[in-house]
Prior knowledge:
By secondary structure, the protein is of the alpha/beta class. Helix content is 47%, strand content 8%. It has helices spanning 4-19, 25-35, 40-45, 53-72, 81-93, 132-141, 159-172, 193-207, 214-217, 224-237, 258-274, 319-328, 335-345, 349-360; strands at 148-152, 176-181, 244-249, 284-290, 310-313.
Amino acid sequence: MINFEEGIRILDTAVFQKINRYLTDVERIILEGSWQGLTYEEIADTTNNRYTAEHLRQFVGFNLWRLLSEVLEEKVSKTNFIGAVERLYYRHQNITPAVNQDRAITDTNEFAPECPDDPVPLNSLFYIERSPIKERLCYTTILQPGSLIRIKAPHKMGKTSLLNRIIAHSSQQGYRTVRINFRQLEAADFSSLDKFLRWFCDCVSLKLRLPSLLNETWTEYRNSIGNCTVYFEDNILDQINNNLVLALDEVDIVFRYHEISQCFFAMLRTWHEEAKTLEIWEKLRLIVVHSTEDYGSLDINRSPFDNVGLVIPLPEFTLEQVKNLIQHHKLNYNETQVQQLMSLIGGHPYLIRLALYHLAFGENTLDNF
Length: 369
Protein backbone atom coordinates (compact mmCIF):
# COMPACT_ATOMS: atom_id res chain seq x y z
CA MET A 1 0.00 0.00 0.00
CA ILE A 2 1.37 3.42 -0.93
CA ASN A 3 1.60 6.14 1.71
CA PHE A 4 -0.28 9.43 1.67
CA GLU A 5 2.65 11.47 0.38
CA GLU A 6 3.08 9.17 -2.63
CA GLY A 7 -0.65 9.11 -3.25
CA ILE A 8 -1.13 12.87 -3.08
CA ARG A 9 1.85 13.44 -5.39
CA ILE A 10 0.52 11.24 -8.19
CA LEU A 11 -3.03 12.49 -7.67
CA ASP A 12 -1.90 16.13 -7.78
CA THR A 13 -0.12 15.49 -11.10
CA ALA A 14 -3.17 13.72 -12.55
CA VAL A 15 -5.48 16.58 -11.54
CA PHE A 16 -3.16 19.17 -13.10
CA GLN A 17 -2.94 17.23 -16.36
CA LYS A 18 -6.75 17.13 -16.47
CA ILE A 19 -7.73 20.69 -15.51
CA ASN A 20 -4.49 22.72 -15.39
CA ARG A 21 -4.51 23.34 -11.63
CA TYR A 22 -3.24 21.61 -8.53
CA LEU A 23 -5.26 20.46 -5.54
CA THR A 24 -6.17 23.32 -3.21
CA ASP A 25 -5.24 23.41 0.46
CA VAL A 26 -8.76 22.58 1.64
CA GLU A 27 -8.98 19.68 -0.85
CA ARG A 28 -5.71 18.33 0.56
CA ILE A 29 -7.12 18.64 4.08
CA ILE A 30 -10.11 16.50 3.11
CA LEU A 31 -7.94 13.94 1.32
CA GLU A 32 -5.51 13.61 4.22
CA GLY A 33 -8.30 13.26 6.74
CA SER A 34 -10.13 10.73 4.58
CA TRP A 35 -6.87 8.80 4.12
CA GLN A 36 -6.72 8.54 7.93
CA GLY A 37 -10.35 7.40 8.09
CA LEU A 38 -11.65 10.57 9.77
CA THR A 39 -15.24 11.78 9.49
CA TYR A 40 -16.02 15.25 8.14
CA GLU A 41 -16.65 16.39 11.73
CA GLU A 42 -13.22 15.12 12.79
CA ILE A 43 -11.58 16.71 9.74
CA ALA A 44 -13.26 20.03 10.57
CA ASP A 45 -11.84 19.84 14.11
CA THR A 46 -8.30 19.64 12.66
CA THR A 47 -8.75 23.00 10.88
CA ASN A 48 -9.15 25.06 14.08
CA ASN A 49 -12.66 26.19 13.07
CA ARG A 50 -11.56 27.47 9.66
CA TYR A 51 -14.14 25.18 8.04
CA THR A 52 -17.34 23.59 9.26
CA ALA A 53 -18.12 19.94 8.63
CA GLU A 54 -21.10 20.98 6.53
CA HIS A 55 -18.94 23.20 4.32
CA LEU A 56 -16.38 20.45 3.85
CA ARG A 57 -19.06 17.88 3.02
CA GLN A 58 -21.53 19.84 0.90
CA PHE A 59 -19.33 22.29 -0.95
CA VAL A 60 -15.71 21.13 -1.09
CA GLY A 61 -16.14 17.37 -0.73
CA PHE A 62 -19.00 17.05 -3.21
CA ASN A 63 -17.05 18.83 -5.96
CA LEU A 64 -13.78 17.08 -5.04
CA TRP A 65 -15.16 13.54 -5.44
CA ARG A 66 -16.83 14.50 -8.70
CA LEU A 67 -13.53 15.92 -9.97
CA LEU A 68 -11.56 12.84 -8.95
CA SER A 69 -14.12 10.62 -10.63
CA GLU A 70 -13.39 12.47 -13.88
CA VAL A 71 -9.63 12.40 -13.37
CA LEU A 72 -9.39 8.72 -12.38
CA GLU A 73 -12.13 7.63 -14.80
CA GLU A 74 -14.06 5.65 -12.20
CA LYS A 75 -16.61 6.44 -9.49
CA VAL A 76 -14.68 7.93 -6.57
CA SER A 77 -16.01 8.66 -3.09
CA LYS A 78 -14.63 9.43 0.36
CA THR A 79 -14.59 5.75 1.25
CA ASN A 80 -13.00 4.25 -1.88
CA PHE A 81 -10.60 6.90 -3.20
CA ILE A 82 -7.48 5.28 -1.68
CA GLY A 83 -7.98 2.18 -3.81
CA ALA A 84 -8.56 4.33 -6.90
CA VAL A 85 -5.33 6.27 -6.29
CA GLU A 86 -3.40 3.04 -5.77
CA ARG A 87 -4.70 1.65 -9.06
CA LEU A 88 -3.54 4.82 -10.81
CA TYR A 89 -0.15 4.55 -9.11
CA TYR A 90 0.40 0.94 -10.14
CA ARG A 91 -0.76 1.60 -13.70
CA HIS A 92 2.04 4.14 -13.95
CA GLN A 93 4.57 1.80 -12.39
CA ASN A 94 3.73 -1.07 -14.71
CA ILE A 95 4.64 0.78 -17.93
CA THR A 96 7.82 -1.20 -18.61
CA PRO A 97 8.42 -1.96 -22.31
CA ALA A 98 10.07 -5.23 -23.28
CA VAL A 99 13.70 -4.97 -24.42
CA ASN A 100 16.31 -7.11 -26.13
CA GLN A 101 18.67 -9.31 -24.10
CA ASP A 102 21.68 -7.18 -25.12
CA ARG A 103 19.99 -3.93 -24.12
CA ALA A 104 21.86 -1.03 -22.58
CA ILE A 105 19.57 -1.20 -19.51
CA THR A 106 20.32 -4.04 -17.13
CA ASP A 107 17.43 -3.58 -14.72
CA THR A 108 14.22 -2.00 -15.99
CA ASN A 109 12.81 -2.03 -12.46
CA GLU A 110 15.39 0.63 -11.60
CA PHE A 111 15.20 2.62 -14.82
CA ALA A 112 13.02 2.87 -17.90
CA PRO A 113 13.41 5.65 -20.46
CA GLU A 114 10.40 7.85 -20.95
CA CYS A 115 8.69 7.78 -24.33
CA PRO A 116 9.16 11.28 -25.80
CA ASP A 117 5.54 12.35 -25.81
CA ASP A 118 4.67 15.98 -26.20
CA PRO A 119 4.53 17.71 -23.77
CA VAL A 120 7.09 16.46 -21.26
CA PRO A 121 5.32 15.63 -17.95
CA LEU A 122 5.84 18.06 -15.10
CA ASN A 123 7.62 15.53 -12.88
CA SER A 124 9.79 14.11 -15.68
CA LEU A 125 13.54 13.65 -15.29
CA PHE A 126 13.82 14.21 -19.02
CA TYR A 127 12.80 17.85 -19.10
CA ILE A 128 15.87 19.92 -19.90
CA GLU A 129 15.92 23.60 -19.06
CA ARG A 130 17.32 25.65 -21.95
CA SER A 131 18.68 28.01 -19.37
CA PRO A 132 17.64 28.32 -15.74
CA ILE A 133 17.58 32.06 -16.39
CA LYS A 134 14.81 31.68 -18.98
CA GLU A 135 12.60 29.55 -16.78
CA ARG A 136 13.12 31.81 -13.77
CA LEU A 137 12.45 34.87 -15.93
CA CYS A 138 9.12 33.38 -17.03
CA TYR A 139 8.17 32.49 -13.45
CA THR A 140 8.99 36.02 -12.29
CA THR A 141 7.30 37.78 -15.20
CA ILE A 142 3.99 35.94 -14.91
CA LEU A 143 3.61 37.33 -11.38
CA GLN A 144 3.80 40.92 -12.62
CA PRO A 145 0.51 42.85 -13.04
CA GLY A 146 -0.78 42.75 -16.61
CA SER A 147 2.23 40.76 -17.84
CA LEU A 148 2.58 39.22 -21.29
CA ILE A 149 4.87 36.34 -22.27
CA ARG A 150 5.31 35.19 -25.86
CA ILE A 151 6.90 31.78 -26.52
CA LYS A 152 7.97 31.16 -30.11
CA ALA A 153 9.68 28.18 -31.72
CA PRO A 154 9.04 25.61 -34.47
CA HIS A 155 7.01 22.46 -33.75
CA LYS A 156 8.34 19.89 -31.26
CA MET A 157 10.79 22.32 -29.69
CA GLY A 158 9.28 22.31 -26.19
CA LYS A 159 6.90 25.27 -26.23
CA THR A 160 4.02 23.45 -24.56
CA SER A 161 6.32 21.83 -21.99
CA LEU A 162 7.54 25.27 -20.92
CA LEU A 163 4.00 26.63 -21.02
CA ASN A 164 2.78 23.91 -18.67
CA ARG A 165 5.52 24.74 -16.19
CA ILE A 166 4.59 28.41 -16.18
CA ILE A 167 0.96 27.44 -15.62
CA ALA A 168 1.96 25.08 -12.80
CA HIS A 169 4.05 27.82 -11.16
CA SER A 170 1.10 30.22 -11.43
CA SER A 171 -1.24 27.66 -9.87
CA GLN A 172 1.15 27.21 -6.96
CA GLN A 173 0.82 30.96 -6.31
CA GLY A 174 -2.95 30.52 -6.10
CA TYR A 175 -3.64 32.10 -9.49
CA ARG A 176 -6.56 30.94 -11.63
CA THR A 177 -5.37 29.48 -14.93
CA VAL A 178 -7.00 28.82 -18.29
CA ARG A 179 -5.28 27.22 -21.24
CA ILE A 180 -6.82 27.35 -24.73
CA ASN A 181 -5.41 25.37 -27.66
CA PHE A 182 -6.75 26.84 -30.89
CA ARG A 183 -6.23 23.56 -32.72
CA GLN A 184 -9.36 22.36 -30.97
CA LEU A 185 -11.52 24.74 -32.98
CA GLU A 186 -13.35 23.82 -36.15
CA ALA A 187 -13.55 25.94 -39.30
CA ALA A 188 -17.13 26.92 -38.44
CA ASP A 189 -15.88 28.60 -35.25
CA PHE A 190 -14.02 31.10 -37.45
CA SER A 191 -17.02 31.94 -39.61
CA SER A 192 -17.25 35.44 -38.12
CA LEU A 193 -15.49 37.62 -35.58
CA ASP A 194 -18.60 37.75 -33.39
CA LYS A 195 -18.99 33.97 -33.30
CA PHE A 196 -15.30 33.49 -32.57
CA LEU A 197 -15.30 35.95 -29.66
CA ARG A 198 -18.49 34.51 -28.20
CA TRP A 199 -16.86 31.07 -28.29
CA PHE A 200 -13.73 32.55 -26.67
CA CYS A 201 -15.68 34.10 -23.78
CA ASP A 202 -17.80 31.00 -23.28
CA CYS A 203 -14.69 28.76 -23.27
CA VAL A 204 -12.94 30.83 -20.58
CA SER A 205 -16.08 30.90 -18.43
CA LEU A 206 -16.47 27.14 -18.74
CA LYS A 207 -12.87 26.43 -17.77
CA LEU A 208 -13.19 28.73 -14.76
CA ARG A 209 -16.52 27.11 -13.87
CA LEU A 210 -18.26 30.46 -14.06
CA PRO A 211 -21.77 30.89 -15.49
CA SER A 212 -21.93 31.75 -19.19
CA LEU A 213 -23.69 35.10 -19.44
CA LEU A 214 -23.30 35.83 -23.13
CA ASN A 215 -26.95 36.63 -23.75
CA GLU A 216 -27.02 39.01 -20.79
CA THR A 217 -23.82 40.82 -21.83
CA TRP A 218 -23.76 40.83 -25.63
CA THR A 219 -25.63 43.79 -27.12
CA GLU A 220 -26.10 45.15 -30.62
CA TYR A 221 -25.11 48.61 -29.42
CA ARG A 222 -21.47 47.56 -29.01
CA ASN A 223 -19.20 45.97 -31.58
CA SER A 224 -17.84 42.46 -31.03
CA ILE A 225 -14.56 43.65 -29.46
CA GLY A 226 -16.48 45.92 -27.10
CA ASN A 227 -18.80 43.08 -26.09
CA CYS A 228 -15.89 40.73 -25.49
CA THR A 229 -14.02 43.31 -23.42
CA VAL A 230 -17.04 44.11 -21.25
CA TYR A 231 -17.68 40.38 -20.79
CA PHE A 232 -14.13 39.83 -19.53
CA GLU A 233 -14.32 42.80 -17.18
CA ASP A 234 -17.74 42.07 -15.68
CA ASN A 235 -18.17 38.30 -15.90
CA ILE A 236 -14.62 36.99 -15.57
CA LEU A 237 -12.06 39.33 -14.00
CA ASP A 238 -14.56 40.89 -11.60
CA GLN A 239 -15.87 37.45 -10.56
CA ILE A 240 -12.61 35.77 -9.57
CA ASN A 241 -10.80 36.48 -6.33
CA ASN A 242 -7.32 36.25 -7.75
CA ASN A 243 -5.24 36.88 -10.84
CA LEU A 244 -5.94 35.02 -14.08
CA VAL A 245 -3.28 33.45 -16.29
CA LEU A 246 -4.72 33.06 -19.79
CA ALA A 247 -2.49 30.79 -21.90
CA LEU A 248 -3.18 30.77 -25.64
CA ASP A 249 -1.49 27.87 -27.43
CA GLU A 250 -1.18 27.29 -31.20
CA VAL A 251 -2.36 30.80 -32.05
CA ASP A 252 -0.89 30.34 -35.56
CA ILE A 253 -4.28 28.90 -36.51
CA VAL A 254 -5.87 32.32 -36.09
CA PHE A 255 -3.43 33.94 -38.57
CA ARG A 256 -5.32 32.23 -41.40
CA TYR A 257 -8.42 34.33 -40.80
CA HIS A 258 -7.69 37.96 -41.66
CA GLU A 259 -10.56 39.81 -39.99
CA ILE A 260 -10.46 37.70 -36.84
CA SER A 261 -6.68 37.84 -36.41
CA GLN A 262 -6.51 41.62 -36.91
CA CYS A 263 -9.20 42.33 -34.33
CA PHE A 264 -8.47 39.56 -31.84
CA PHE A 265 -4.74 40.25 -31.46
CA ALA A 266 -5.29 44.01 -31.39
CA MET A 267 -7.75 43.40 -28.54
CA LEU A 268 -5.19 41.30 -26.62
CA ARG A 269 -2.59 44.03 -26.96
CA THR A 270 -5.09 46.62 -25.76
CA TRP A 271 -5.93 44.47 -22.72
CA HIS A 272 -2.23 44.20 -21.93
CA GLU A 273 -1.77 47.97 -22.20
CA GLU A 274 -4.91 48.70 -20.16
CA ALA A 275 -3.18 47.14 -17.16
CA LYS A 276 -0.98 50.23 -16.97
CA THR A 277 -3.94 52.42 -16.05
CA LEU A 278 -6.89 50.18 -15.05
CA GLU A 279 -6.61 48.05 -11.94
CA ILE A 280 -8.99 45.32 -13.13
CA TRP A 281 -6.75 44.49 -16.11
CA GLU A 282 -3.76 44.06 -13.82
CA LYS A 283 -5.32 40.72 -12.87
CA LEU A 284 -4.91 39.34 -16.40
CA ARG A 285 -1.58 37.73 -17.33
CA LEU A 286 -1.26 36.57 -20.94
CA ILE A 287 0.88 33.80 -22.45
CA VAL A 288 0.87 33.55 -26.25
CA VAL A 289 2.48 30.54 -27.95
CA HIS A 290 3.17 30.28 -31.67
CA SER A 291 5.37 28.38 -34.13
CA THR A 292 5.80 30.70 -37.07
CA GLU A 293 7.05 34.18 -37.83
CA ASP A 294 4.71 34.36 -40.83
CA TYR A 295 1.83 36.45 -39.51
CA GLY A 296 0.04 36.63 -42.86
CA SER A 297 -1.59 40.04 -43.35
CA LEU A 298 -1.62 40.77 -39.62
CA ASP A 299 -0.55 44.28 -38.61
CA ILE A 300 1.91 43.23 -35.91
CA ASN A 301 2.22 46.83 -34.68
CA ARG A 302 -1.30 46.39 -33.28
CA SER A 303 -0.70 42.94 -31.82
CA PRO A 304 1.20 41.16 -29.03
CA PHE A 305 3.91 40.22 -31.55
CA ASP A 306 5.82 43.49 -31.70
CA ASN A 307 7.78 45.29 -28.99
CA VAL A 308 5.65 44.25 -26.02
CA GLY A 309 6.04 41.72 -23.26
CA LEU A 310 8.70 39.10 -22.66
CA VAL A 311 9.73 37.12 -25.76
CA ILE A 312 11.08 33.60 -25.19
CA PRO A 313 12.53 31.95 -28.30
CA LEU A 314 13.40 28.27 -27.87
CA PRO A 315 16.57 27.22 -29.69
CA GLU A 316 17.86 23.69 -30.20
CA PHE A 317 19.69 21.95 -27.35
CA THR A 318 23.35 22.75 -26.89
CA LEU A 319 26.08 20.13 -26.65
CA GLU A 320 26.00 20.28 -22.86
CA GLN A 321 22.23 19.89 -22.75
CA VAL A 322 22.40 16.85 -25.02
CA LYS A 323 25.07 15.37 -22.73
CA ASN A 324 22.70 15.93 -19.81
CA LEU A 325 19.93 14.03 -21.58
CA ILE A 326 22.33 11.21 -22.46
CA GLN A 327 23.21 10.84 -18.78
CA HIS A 328 19.51 10.69 -17.88
CA HIS A 329 19.17 7.81 -20.36
CA LYS A 330 22.02 5.94 -18.60
CA LEU A 331 24.13 5.87 -21.76
CA ASN A 332 27.91 6.15 -21.53
CA TYR A 333 28.89 8.15 -24.61
CA ASN A 334 32.18 9.93 -25.04
CA GLU A 335 32.58 13.35 -26.63
CA THR A 336 33.08 11.87 -30.11
CA GLN A 337 29.91 9.80 -29.87
CA VAL A 338 27.88 12.80 -28.71
CA GLN A 339 29.18 14.80 -31.66
CA GLN A 340 28.38 11.88 -33.95
CA LEU A 341 24.76 11.83 -32.76
CA MET A 342 24.36 15.60 -33.09
CA SER A 343 25.89 15.61 -36.56
CA LEU A 344 22.88 13.56 -37.69
CA ILE A 345 19.97 15.38 -36.02
CA GLY A 346 21.45 18.48 -34.41
CA GLY A 347 20.00 19.48 -31.07
CA HIS A 348 16.31 19.21 -31.97
CA PRO A 349 14.69 18.36 -28.61
CA TYR A 350 12.14 15.83 -29.83
CA LEU A 351 14.46 14.06 -32.27
CA ILE A 352 17.25 13.82 -29.69
CA ARG A 353 14.88 12.34 -27.12
CA LEU A 354 13.38 9.94 -29.65
CA ALA A 355 16.85 8.71 -30.64
CA LEU A 356 17.99 8.27 -27.04
CA TYR A 357 14.76 6.48 -26.12
CA HIS A 358 15.46 3.73 -28.67
CA LEU A 359 19.21 3.66 -28.03
CA ALA A 360 18.67 3.30 -24.28
CA PHE A 361 16.59 0.18 -24.85
CA GLY A 362 19.41 -1.37 -26.89
CA GLU A 363 17.23 -1.64 -29.97
CA ASN A 364 20.09 -0.27 -32.01
CA THR A 365 23.71 0.76 -31.64
CA LEU A 366 24.85 4.31 -32.14
CA ASP A 367 26.91 3.30 -35.18
CA ASN A 368 23.94 1.59 -36.83
CA PHE A 369 21.67 4.47 -35.92
